[in-house]
Structures are given as C-alpha cells and as structure tokens.
Records
---
Amino acid sequence: MKKLLFLTGLAFTLSSNAQLTQANNAPAPGDTYSMAVTSPSVLSPGASGAGAVWTYTNITLGTTTGFSSAAYSAASYSPSNVLLTNTSSESFYYESTSNYLKSFGGNVIFNTGLGAVPGTITYSAGAFEAVYPMSLSTSSTSAVGGSIVALSNNGTFVGSASTLADATGTLVLPGRTYTNVIRVRLTQSYTVSSALVNGPVDNVVYKYFAAGKKNPVLVISTSTTNLGSPSTQTTVSVDANYLATGINNVNGSSSEVIAYPNPANNQLNIVAAEATSLVISDITGKTILSTNVNNGKSAINTENFVNGVYFYTLYNNNTKLGVGKFTVTH
C-alpha cells in the first residue's frame, strides 16, 4: 500500500549544483519555520570540501523555537529590510539584496562566563552571511564594529566577519537523508570593550542547507568568550519538521502534502495538490473548522486556536485522502 506523505518545510529549492540565491536562501517577509535543539548538544561539523558525508543518526529533538520574518523599514538598524524574530524573544535584522545577505545585529542572548546574558548588538556596517550566487568556495570577509549593550552596560566591539561555502555533500539524520546539501560557515571574531566586560569573542556557525527549505536543516554553533571568565558554548539545532510522516492511504493514490510551520503560531499553511477541502478537529474529535482548498493551497488562521494538538483531514470532493497532525503554540 502506498502512503500519502505529509512533508513539512517551505517550497523553495536549490539548483542541482547546490547553489544559494536570495530567492532560496534569504529570509523574506512571511517566512516561518521552527528549529529544535538536539541531544547530544555538541556535534562535530564534519568534513569540508565537495562530496562530504555528515552522519548524525543518534540525535533526538528537544525544545523547539519558532522563527518568523517580516518587512522592516525603521532607522535603528538601517539599511535592514527584513526582521527575523523567534519565540525566545530574540530579534535579528538583515539587509537582503539579490547580491548578498548582511546581518546588522539585534536583541540577542550572549553566552558568556557570566551565564546567558540578554543584550543588544548593533553593527555600524553589516556582517556578510551570504554572497549570491553562493556555491562551493564562494566567500567574503569584512571588517565589523559597532555598539553592544549587556546588563545595562554600554560598550563597543571591533573585529572581522566572514562567510564561506566550505562544503557540499550528503546529510544523514535519523529517518531521513538529504543529498545536494551546501554548508555555509560563518565566522566572527571581535573584541568587546565596556565597563562591565572586556575581551575577545569568537563565533563559528555551520549552517547546512538542503533543497526544499530556505532555513537551514542543521545548525552547529560554537561561541568562545573571555568576558568575565573563559567560556565555550556549543549548541546544535535541527529543523523541527524535517521528518516525513507516512499515514495510511485511504484511496490508494500517492500525493505530497506540505504543512508549515509546525508548531503553528498565527497561521498554518497547507499545500495539497489533490485536495479540494479539509476539516480541522481538536484532540477530542470536535470539528474546529471546515474549509475549501483552492488550487491545492489553504492558509488557516490559528491565532484564536487554543495551544495544543490538532488534526486536519483532507478530501478530494467526497473522497477522504488522509489525516495529518499539527500543533499550535502561541
């Protein structure tokens, strides 16, 4: 029996030679996705170069953080035009063009020898995160500097930032393998000067991008500081919805359904080419919503849904196609 596959992710693709562009990589208004921390929380980034194979089959998913993008036009982080926020109350400001993606800072959580410290970092000149089109060995380095605020103490920082597409290959995760993956290594090294802390900060972030998703499938981030006392923190996160979930087929047909973001906040998007209608029910089986699916697409407003687990049932006219599950988290 064939299965109706319910896939999560955003409908963007990489070209066959694992190349990143603004269209398939940069955050854009309306984009949403979720990342989950992994256990173990420290993984080796693995090999660089062409034809690499990265195998992480022993990880499990933990706490999930949702991300969403919106247009931005205020002066405080000019010339940023995209704001990326997450459910951990962090915000990241980007200038996105067809030629590059630059970070201009935001409200972040610093991992230091003093513990996790909330603060604000503002770049006077943006730090490159991508240079388009970006394929294996594409790179850029720039001087960076600006202001930093932590624990109500003002300071400055100065240093350098670089981006490098250092590898392409195959990423193996529990239950799923991605081919044609491109990995981008982001490196920032700078020195902080403030009344509270003074010292070097080194951040190295590896982002693994796969066809079908604008957001990275896997992120390995290591931060080394000497602010107050020496500290090295490594965190790993994976796309929270990377697994394809098979369900029992009702009519014997094969189709692909994309449901994102999951967990949903204010909106769930469902793409199902064969569907003409759907019904959403809660965990007790009570029908919450019945609606048509137009041209294979439906946007469900979930802002008034109570936090919890819900099910959607897809139909083609009066024929039941299958059932999928999603979570609402505000």
Note: Residues 38 and 61 are 5 Å apart (CA to CA).
---
Amino acid sequence: MSYLYFLLLLLPILAFSGWASAKVSSTYSAFDKVGNRSCMTGYDAAVRLMRNRGVTDISVNRVNGRLTDHYDPTKKKVNLSMSTYGSSSVASVAVAAHEVGHVMQKQEGYIPYKIRKALVPITNVGSRLALPLIIVGILLDIFWVTAPRPFGEWLVYISIAMYGLSSLFMLVTLPVEFNASRRAKKMLVEDGILAQDEVAGASKVLSAAALTYVASLCVSLVYFLRFVIIAFSFLQNDK
C-alpha cells in the first residue's frame, strides 16, 4: 500500500474519529440538561440497579473528570465521573446504568466480557484508543523507514502484532459495550428510573459513546493492514 493510498484511507477514518468524540460530548451535554422524572442521580441509579439484582459487594464512587465513568472489577467499584455521580439527568442515569451493565456481565459470566478482560485488564481505555493508535502508528511509520533494514523489518512485525492485538481487543469490545447498553436501557425501565418515553434520550447517549469504540477499531484495522502489506513487500523483495 503506497503512503498516498494509505492516507486516502486513513483521513476519512480520522475525520470519523474526531466526529465521534464530538458527538459523545454534544449528546451527553444535551441530555445532561434534561432531568429524569424519577429525580434519581447517577449514584442513586447505580445503587438501586445493583441492589435490586442482589449485588451488594460493589461500591459506587465518584472520580474526577467528565465521562471518565468505568467499572473496576478488581477493586469492586463502579466509578462515576463528576458529571454523572450527582446529576439527575437522563444522560447521567444512562451512563451509570451502562456501568452496572458491565457489573452484571461479570456476575453472569458473559463470555465476551471475560475475553476482553483477559486481553486487557484495564477495560475503560477502549473509547480513548483512537488518538494514541494514530500517534504510535505515525512514529512507527517513520522509524521503520529510517532504521537499518533488519531493525526496520522487526519494527514492522512488532507493529503487526500490536495492531493485530488492538484490533482483536476492539472487536471483542464492541459486543461487550452494545450488550451493556442494552442491559442498561432494560434495567432503567424495569426499575422505574426512566419512563419509556425517556429511554430514547438515554439510547442516544449510549449510541454516541459506542461510536468511539467503532472509530478505534477502524484506526487499528487500517494500520494493521498497512503493516501487513509492508511485510509482504519484504517477502517479495527477498525472493
């Protein structure tokens, strides 16, 4: 793959990644201004959802940042960001319920969740992988070209392994995230936290968040393809 063709493939993905990040922020902000009629905060929702399902050994904590919400199974904590923990908006309870969805995945032994956890212990990094993957890819592209032949080849093979693993991680992450969102919407209605007509807003928030994982997968796959093609060119030149 010539570098020009690679850029023509990468640039739309970069644009999609930037749009996905902006979409998450704007959608959350919009529905963070819409109060839920149950008046429950993100903290209240997380506690009720887990208690009603017999989960009593997971604490709900507040962490710094915005949209830094994540479930930490090793410490048995659902960590809600400042923007979610004390807010009684549709957006906050949707995000809190999504994290409880991950709790229930672990409780029920959901297979894709187990696979993702085995691949990467820190599972809240997936939505933020797109930019680091791009930066690392650019650096590797520079280094393999400028390095002496044996070292350049090894960098390409290392890149294939790295982007292959990250692609696998993101492929497993997508069903895990979509499943957690489906669980979230169902639980919110079952437990009376959101009325049926409020679920549409929650769904928009969760769908926007899922786009960031799709963007990370696209970036990872295109770099994986690039380095695989470079490796094939080495093999052809050696014949």
Note: The longest helix spans residues 149-190.
---
Amino acid sequence: MFNFSSIKESVRKLSNLVKVNPDITDEDYIIKEINKFKNSIRRKQMVDGENYYNGKHDILKAKRMGIGENGELTELTNLPNNRIVDNQYKKMVDQKSNYLLGKPITFQCENEVYAKLIRKIINKKVQRLMKNLGEDSLNEGIGWLYVYYDEKGVFSLKRFKGYEIIPGWKDAEHTILEYVIRIYEVIKVEKNQEKIIEKVEVYDEKGVYYFTLDGNRLIPDNPRFKTHFSIIDHDGNIDGYNWTKIPIIPFKYNSKEIPLIKMVKSLQDGINKILSTFENNMEEDSRNTILVLVNYDGQNLGEFRKNLSQYGAVKIKTIDGAAGDLRTLQVEVNAENYKSILELFKKALIENAMGYDAKDDRLNGQPNQMNIQSMYSDIDLDANGMETEYQASFEELLWFINCHLYNTGIGDFENEEITVIFNRDMLMNESEIIDNVNKSTEVVSTETALANHPWVDDPQKELERIKKEKQENIEQYGNAFNPLNGGNTDDEDGDNNNE
C-alpha cells in the first residue's frame, strides 16, 4: 500500500485504474478448465521441456526388456542397463536464450530523462529475470510476466511458469486476455509431515480470487479476493484499485506458442539411447554373453549362470562318450557405427532446434564475418521471430510502466517513442567490423556508427563520454594558450620579437 501523488487526476487522464467490488466466479467452469489443462498434450510438452532442461529425461526410466517364456516382453534385471543423459537440448536452450537475451537490453529515446527512468526500472535484476523468462519461453512455448506492487509499494515484476497458467483469450490471435487461471503447488507441514496443496488464483480486470483445490472443489482462501493493488488516500483511507488490463503479460517463443522440446525430443531420446546401448554392449563380457553349453555337469542353466558369475569358471565332463564343451558367441561392438549415428543425430538436433555448432568447420583458421554469419543464419532467423513476439510484449510492459510513472507523479511519458534493442551475442571478427565502421563514418551518423561498433553496448552513454572527453580537451588546451590563466603564447625565451 502506498500513496499516489494525485490519484484522481491520473484516473481521469489515463483511465488506467478502475475501483471495483468483488464478484462471484464460476466454480464449475474453473475446475473444468483446470482438469482439461492438466490432461492436455500441451501441458505435458511444457513439463517435458522443463524436465529435459533439468536433465530429467525419459532414458532414466528405461528398462532392459526381452522375450520371456510365454513370448511376452519381460524385464531383464540381470543385464547391464545404463541410462546415459547427453543433454544437447539444454545446450540449445542456453545457446538461444543467451544469443538473444544474454547481453543487456538497451533503450534508445530522444527524451533522455524517460530513458534513464526506464533503465532504472529495467535494472540488472530485471534483466536477469528477462533472461530466465527467455528460458521459460523456449522450454514451454510461452512465459508469463506478472506486474505488481510489493508490500513496500515498489513497482515489481515476477515470472509465472507456463505450465501453471491457463489463459482465457478474447481473440483467436492470442493477444488480449479475458482472464488467467493460475494453478500451482505449495508444501504445507501438518503434524510434522509435508503435504502438497494445490492453490488456484483467478485474475481478471476486477482483481484476483484465491482458492485451494480439494479434489473437484474450490475452497475460498482468506482473503478470498483482492484488487490488483491498494492505495492510501490523503485521509488515510485504504481503497482497492485495478488496472484496466490484466497485469500478466505473455512472452512467446513463437506465434504458435510451440515449445522447443516438441521439435527435438525424439532426437534427444535417440542420442541418449545410442550412448546407453553402446555402454551396455561394451559391458557384456564373457560372463553375460551368449554361451553354447555341451554336457554340463549341473542341474539347470540358472545354477550354471550363478556358478559362472560367482567363480568365473564352470565344470564340464564327458557323458556317454560325448565330450563336454563350452563355447561363446560374441557379437563385436563396432564403435565407428555408433559414432557415425551419434554424429547424425546431434547434427539433426542442432538443425531442428535452429541452433549452431560451435565446432563448425567454417570457424577453422581465420574465419571472416561472412562465414560467421553463415554459421549463425539458423539461430538468427529463429531469434527474429522470438524478438518480434518480445517487442510486442515489451510494448505491453511499457504501458504499465508509463501508467506507474504518471500516477506516482514522476511524469507523463505516454506519447514518448522508445526503441527496445536486443543486443545479440554473436561471435564476430572484431577487426573486420571496426574497419567497416571507420570507413562508414562519413556517410552515417556517429550514433549509428557507435551502435554497430563491437565494443559499444550503449550508444547513448558512449556519445556522452565522447562529448565529455571533447569538452575536457577544449578546456585543457584553452587554458594552455590563455595568458590570463598562466598560459604562455610567446617563444621559449619569452621574447616576442619578429626577425
């Protein structure tokens, strides 16, 4: 709760706040939407994306299977069962999120006061949040940003996971929200035992409703309803207010909201299976390979296997004139075959993920910028689509920031134009780029040249440094040749004679 400088004027001007009363939600509809979402393929893909990023792959649940006595598949517990995870998927997610969001986002605006205010709000902490939000977008197809005021009245931002959010869209293009249902788990300790409780929050333009999900029942929490934030007026009274938009902003990986895992899961599973199978085959030595047994002096094959495993030897004798014998059928493991298949799978995964191979042959020797850009062509193309979605989302975020700045009496920046720049983290031939920038200084502005210089992250700050440096040089040389400030304009001997 906090004080606005002039809440009534801000309401009349921007109409961004509406005082409301709580309403009753449709419980049956909410439960129906929750159950449908929980059982949907879409949510499963979101959870898969998160799990695969964290190394929880399907191979970890793999079993060695074989045909049993009745011709049915039976688990073989006495054979090696390696479960190797080679997490190429995580590598692709980190590669793509760092490529677009690894470097700080910069803001260009003619109104430097406004630009500084934006930089103060979108600080390093928020920049880190945006980077993590990019990972959510890739893993789940869509990430969510919640705009709120914390307990101290500070304008704040928070991530919501994609698999927690059930959006209610007003339009087919999924650009305008009518409501948002959030379902998430919390751990509660009861009688020294941990218990998982499912919480439900329903967001709309009227505020936020809070429930606990108990089977197919919604039990209202205390409090059951809150407006988006509260304000203390000049008389000390507390009033609840809402934005005219739901303060939850979608950040999409692509327009279809398709997670990256959907495109590469089968390839990632294939890589894990190839490596696991190769190690299984390498571990199958003479004690657990195919054995041909002739005239064994024992009761059954189970006893034979036990003796072989325990002692590493087996006793064979001649029966009815037939000599006993033990032979093995060994299948040689050709490592080159596995290596070739593994390389094909990894290359296919990189191509389907639209990433790049850091060990690409085009980087050998002294690669020029054209070769580097060729290697980055796929990830750059994919980043273009993701940036388009993020630009639209930032437009929504700036709407809330502008309303906040006006309502708190800082200023009215609603009509200010500001450019959001995503500084992509691309490998580059710096000397070649610098040479091209230097050659272009006569045909482009200094700001444009600085924006393309590999050593400059913020062109506006660099322009300020250049201006300050020039001013210092003028003052320094001005003082050196000014007699009033001790400067000496005569010759070395102090004479001023012309010969």
Note: Residues 55 and 87 are 7 Å apart (CA to CA).
